Amino acid sequence: MLEELIRLDVARLEREYRERERAIEARVKLPFALRLDGVGFGRALKGYAEPRDERVHRALLQGASELVKRLSASGAYVVSDEVNVLLLGPSLPYAGRVEKLVSVSASTLSAVVSTLLDRQLVFDSRVIPLESAEDAKRYVVYRTRVGLNNFVGSMLRRLGAELAGVHLAERIAKLESLGVRLTERPAWEWSGSSVFWRLEGARELAVEDGPWRLLEAIDAYARAPELAR
What is the total count of domains within the chain? Predict the structure, then answer.
C-alpha cells in the first residue's frame, strides 16, 4: 500500500478533481443577500422563551456582526431565527463562489451562536441575487413583513386564538383585543434589528432595533458606493 501511494500521480489527480469541481461551480454577482435560517430551532432551543427570546436575538446579532466583518458585507438584518447579510459591493468575497459563500457563512454563524448559547445549533444558508440597492431595500422590507407575520401568528397560537387564512391586519386587531399591542412590546420582537456601518465619525458597526437604520444605510451606499467598503 505504501509503494502504491508513493507512485500515485498526485498532480494529475489534483487537476482532474479540480476540473470536476469547476464543472459544477456556481458563482453570483453583486449585489446579493445571504439568508441564514436556524435548523430545528424549536427543539434545539427548548427552555428559551417563545416566540422570541432576547438572549437568542442578541446572540444572532453577534453572529451577524461577525459575518458582516468577515465578508466585508454592507450590513445585516436579523429577525426571528434568521440572519440576512447584504453584500452590495464593491467587495465580492470568494469571487462570488456560491458553495464557498454558503458553507463559510453557515459554519461561522453556527459556531458563534452555538458558543454564545451553549447549545449545538445549525444554520443553513442560501444566496439571494439582488438587482440594485432599491431591490435590497425591498428584500429587507419583505423579510420584515415575514417576521411580523410569524410573530403575530405565534402569539395568537399561544393565546389559543389562531386565525387561519385571515389578513395580517385582522390578526393584529385580534391580538390587540386580547391585550397584546405590538407598539407596547420591544420593537426587535416583531420588526427585528439592523446591523449597519455607522457612517458618521469613526467607521464602526452599530445595532439598532427595526430595519430602518439598515434601509437608510442602503440609501447612503447607493449614493456613494465607496461607503460600503
Answer: 1
